[in-house]
């Protein structure tokens, strides 16, 4: 996987620990991270450019802000599916969807994204925002290949993720120290999103480099790579 795998930190907390932590923090999540992530999520959604009538999957929907925006974009003829490991996040998002009157457009499930049981070519688009970097290094390519499997042949994917590209900033080093010291609480870490996505059989359409609190962020827009010799 070139540098995409050899020098990023591992995620050592268990899935059960992640589930418990996100259930515990769900009521505070928007106050802790929601505001700082909001602008970058919106940029990612604009790049994904979801259209009326499309079917979209969001992995790691959290407290549901992007689910609502996606449901507004697909209209009554479209469908949004979301999966998240936290049952409490599911409850919060379900409440938001009901209040917005969007239940008929949205299907939510509490599950591990590594177990995508959707049929092949089910979705026009896949969206992940600050979710890919929560998966351990050996899980990254299998997850992305599952995303590739459930995308339609002309589908696309947008990933917003903390980035380890370029010169490492003081904030990156501090964040990685916190991740190593407190892996149950600071359970995500910067990754090489573009490289990992390309290695998983996607064609990179565009990459936007931004930052959040001094931490580099990549917004990667990708499509299924149909070139001969590429993995299916």
Question: How are the SSEs placed, and which strands pair?
Answer:
Blueprint: H1 3-6, H2 15-25, H3 29-48, E1 55-59, H4 65-74, E2 79-84, H5 87-99, E3 106-110, E4 123-129, H6 137-150, E5 151-162, H7 170-181, H8 193-199, E6 202-212, E7 215-224
List keywords for this structure.
232 residues, alpha/beta, Rossmann fold, seven-stranded mixed β-sheet, 7 strands
Please sum up the structure shown.
The protein is α/β, with parallel strands linked by helices and 232 residues long. The chain has helices spanning 3-6, 15-25, 29-48, 65-74, 87-99, 137-150, 170-181, 193-199, and strands at residues 55-59, 79-84, 106-110, 123-129, 151-162, 202-212, 215-224.
Describe the fold and architecture:
The protein has one domain: Rossmann fold, CATH 3.40.50.150. The model has no long low-confidence stretch (mean pLDDT 92). Helix 6 links the parallel strand 4 and strand 5. The chain is of the alpha/beta class. The protein is globular and about 45 Å long. The protein contains 8 helices and 7 strands, in the order H-H-H-E-H-E-H-E-E-H-E-H-H-E-E.
């Amino acid at each position: 996987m070139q540098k995409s795998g050899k020098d990023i930190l591992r995620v050592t907390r268990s899935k059960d620990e992640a589930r418990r932590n996100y259930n515990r923090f769900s009521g505070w999540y928007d106050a802790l991270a929601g505001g700082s992530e909001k602008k970058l999520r919106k940029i990612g959604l604009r790049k994904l450019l979801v259209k009326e009538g499309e079917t979209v999957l969001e992995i790691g929907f959290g407290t549901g802000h992007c689910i609502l925006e996606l449901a507004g974009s697909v209209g009554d003829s479209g469908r949004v599916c979301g999966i998240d490991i936290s049952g409490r996040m599911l409850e919060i998002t379900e409440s938001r969807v009901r209040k917005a009157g969007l239940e008929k457009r949205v299907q939510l499930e509490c599950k591990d994204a590594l177990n995508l049981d959707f049929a092949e070519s089910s979705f026009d688009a896949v969206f992940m925002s600050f979710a890919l970097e929560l998966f351990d290094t050996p899980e990254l390519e299998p997850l992305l290949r599952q995303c590739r499997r459930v995308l339609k042949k002309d589908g696309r994917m947008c990933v917003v993720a903390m980035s380890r590209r370029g010169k490492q900033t003081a904030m990156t080093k501090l964040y990685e120290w916190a991740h190593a010291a407190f892996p149950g609480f600071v359970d995500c870490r910067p990754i090489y999103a573009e490289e990992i996505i390309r290695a998983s059989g996607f064609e990179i359409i565009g990459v936007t480099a931004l930052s959040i609190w001094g931490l580099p962020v990549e917004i990667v827009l990708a499509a299924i790579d149909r070139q001969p010799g590429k993995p299916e």
